[in-house]
# Entry
Amino acid sequence: MPAEIARLLGRAAALATTLLALMVGLGLLLTRGIEGRWPLTEEDELNESLAAARTPTWDDVTYWLSWLGNTGTIVVAAAVVAVVFRRLFGRWRESAFVVLAVATQAAVFLATTLVIDRRRPAVEQLDVSPPTSSFPSGHTGAATALYLSVAVVLAWRARHAWARPVIVSALLVVPLSIGIARLYRGMHHPSDIVGSLVNGSLSVVAAARTMLLAALPPRLAARLDRTTAPPRSAGQPLPGGTR
# Structure
């Protein structure tokens, strides 16, 4: 079993490394390649417009939206989702997928900020600036990884086809709203938000490639898919091609 887990972690690490290279490349493009050029020259105007339009009500709304993307909030929410999915589906595979998506995003985000040093927007910031770079947005990326991975599981498990786009659309409203809130509060440039959406989304893809779409080592798959639910019909495959 340790060797099987090591192979699984190696696959996840390889995908995360590829995503990290992409994120660092995007960061270098923004900070060295096209800095001071269009379309980045338009970003300052958007940040300034949002800062000028602030109201006490929206200050409060965006504060709570930002709170939804805080590290502590995301960690607790991911743990709760993992437990709920385990009880709901009677196995660990879906839970492991969500946790891996969130963890991949966090690892890539932190590693990217070690390489990329981008200043925050030149407007009054409503939150204390963390020591990390403005690129990408950790709040938005973490929320994207969490809510999109949950959407994938619920849409995959939905019994009715019409429910799938509804589930995905409803859950994606959360990270998009958090991204807008971070812009409003002067914490990020628009391109930081776009980068974080890329990071969060591709982290979900990497986790799906690892936990849902690839054939897991047999003993590990048996552990993850051990269930108290009624047995599947003979012709119904498990995700990853196992039966």
Confidence is low (pLDDT under 50) at residues 228-243. The CA atoms of residues 2 and 220 lie 9 Å apart. The first helix runs from residue 2 to 33. The chain has one domain: 2-32+55-216.
